[in-house]
Hints:
The protein has one helix spanning 76-83; strands at 23-24, 26-33, 40-43, 47-62, 100-105, 111-115, 118-121, 128-136, 140-158, 165-175, 178-187, 196-203, 210-214, 217-224, 228-235. It is mainly beta. It has a six-stranded antiparallel β-barrel with strand order 4-5-6-7-8-9. The chain has a four-stranded antiparallel β-sheet with strand order 3-15-14-13, with no helix packed on it. The chain is elongated. Mean pLDDT is 83; it is low at 1-15, 73-78 and 85-91.
Amino acid sequence: MVRLMALALASSLGACAITPAPQPVIDDHAGSAPGGEEAHSTMVGDVMLTTYAYRAQRFAVLREPLPAITPDGEDEGVMAYLFGDGDKVAPLDRLEPGTRLPLSETHEGARAFCQRRRCVRDADGDGTLDSEFIVSAKEGAVEVREGLRVPYAIEDDVAESRESVKRDLVYQGRGSDTIKVAYREFQDGRFARPAFFQELSYQLAEEGPTSIGFRSARIEVLEASNTEIRYRVLSGLQ
Length: 238
């Protein structure tokens, strides 16, 4: 149910400053995976170990439609008041699956996925958008809908930068008593094609675990076959 609050105060707030629209944010991402002392498994062709550092803009990609906002009984003047720019219809339309909503920050520092002044959020982090609000030009954040259940996926657009890097070790399979691992390095934020690629081969111990290394990475191989490897990461890849 749509709820528009405190709109009757429009005339008394006419002299107030205009609240800015939410602004898309670009975040720094850095880390490595997997970590910890537990054993991990991966299939041939999948990444065993990765490390990354890049800047990216995050988007929520709708998997189901986000319904239009239709404030029953309210006229166009109310919508013009809400948005403050004369755009009464477009921000309230139904949003179709595949629509990308950038992660944005409001004037109050809150983060949500927004299209202009229309914002949705996943308050409990369960992968569904559950509430919706509008950043009114004069009222600030106005809650308009609760109880949404709109599933979404996350996509990151990596910013091209000389500081952006991603390094992977990929399991390539086993030959009699050796395993093959590939190292690939992506640079400049162009993560679709590696800038550097190297194939590695390691002799397996006759009994028990085998320790292998590449640069700073240290991995203890517990089991290996033509389809899967089970291992423990001792130190990450720098």
